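subagent[fold] <- orchestrator: predict structure for attached chain, return tokens only, no commentary.
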Amino acid sequence: MSSIWFWLAYVLAIAITRGLLFALLPKPYFSEEAEWTTLAVAHGVVSFVGLHWNRGSPFWDDQGEHVGHTVWEQIDNGTPWTPTHKFLLVVPVLLFLVSMHFTHYDVAHLAVNIATLAVLIVPKLPEMHEMRFFGINAGPSVEVEQ
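subagent[fold] -> orchestrator:
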């Protein structure tokens, strides 16, 4: 994830999704404001599930070392404020600002976009590392036999 090519692909995927939303959503029912809010919420859902909900490692050879960690907690071995962490923190903020500009700061869209942004930013803070609120997504503890 620390590769510049990943970062470029990530931004390109957001741009392609925006283009698809513009092309596929019916215009009488979805305004430009709704399209931008839909993009922000869709990005928020995919990003939250992909980075902050899924636990474990995609690799079989880690000997269960990361079974209790989310993908976010595994990036750069949990070291906070690395360039990758900063990039993945800045993207939702920029998407929020752009979507707010195109929604003309409408109160309904603002509420949805702020809620989405909060759900994405709070788990990324270093203070939230390995925190599980009310046991949500804590999962069963796995004991490694020695």
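orchestrator: received. Logging for downstream: DSSP finds five helices and no strands in the chain. The helical segments are 4-24, 32-53, 71-74, 83-102, 107-121.
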